[in-house]
């Protein structure tokens, strides 16, 4: 039996990440639309592009070659991690453009180690600094959104505290997000927080800002929910 090569495997796979926001999606592939005045004859089509998480590409390659490989095997967009090194920020931008790969989103890298829900002010400040860097990265790279895990529930942090603390800190980031025109996209993940679509929709709607939306990962809810339910709820 012939096994597929790495290149063939990458070419046949796609990362379908849905960013569904209240009032509009975080990315170009939004799940929402304005309410039609009349029922359409045919349902709207959703343009889904093949995307890749940059860190999945071989680290032994140069940044330029990693983007070239992604394009060569059929990817059109990439999600890139926060980059605090200004020199590398520019290198990433040029390499992506040369390979004709769009960086559609930034993965904020400090939200697990330094959660916004922490009771330690020093930890929170590091988290906020990481988000500001991520937002500026996104602006330079022409990205639509920064993915943010808003908080973590653990023995030290209650559900209520994770909710109130994270919302308070995220609100301080809204002016920068608006200035840069980059969405802060809240992800549901295995952080024991925002465990239902109704909760997540309510959490986001309380910001009352078009710059705070939902980043919906289908796989993350399979353990305790139904993706289609989340999509319908978050897309309203």
In short:
The chain has 236 residues and is an alpha/beta fold. Helix content is 38%, strand content 11%.
Q: State the total count of DSSP E strands.
A: 6
End-to-end span in angstroms? 47 Å
CATH class type: Alpha Beta
Report the CATH architecture.
Alpha-Beta Barrel
Shape: globular
CATH homology superfamily name: Divalent-metal-dependent TIM barrel enzymes
Biggest β-sheet: strands ordered side by side in the sheet: 1-2-3-4-5-6
CA-atom Rg in angstroms? 18 Å
User: Which stretches are poorly predicted, pLDDT < 50 over at least 5 residues?
Assistant: 9-37
Strand content: 5-15%
The major β-sheet equals:
6 strands, parallel
Task: Explain the overall architecture.
The chain has helices at residues 6-12, 63-72, 86-98, 121-141, 159-180, 197-205, 227-234, and strands at residues 51-53, 77-81, 102-107, 145-148, 183-187, 212-215. With 236 residues, the protein is of the alpha/beta class. It has a single domain (6-30, 48-230), classed as Divalent-metal-dependent TIM barrel enzymes (TIM Barrel). A six-stranded parallel sheet has the order 1-2-3-4-5-6, with helices on one face. It is built from seven helices and six strands, in the order αβαβαβαβαβαβα. α2 packs parallel to α3, α4 packs parallel to α5 (159-180) and α6 packs parallel to α7 (227-234). The model is unreliable at 9-37 (pLDDT under 50).
Topology:
Blueprint: H1 6-12, E1 51-53, H2 63-72, E2 77-81, H3 86-98, E3 102-107, H4 121-141, E4 145-148, H5 159-180, E5 183-187, H6 197-205, E6 212-215, H7 227-234
Parallel strand pairs: 1-2, 2-3, 3-4, 4-5, 5-6
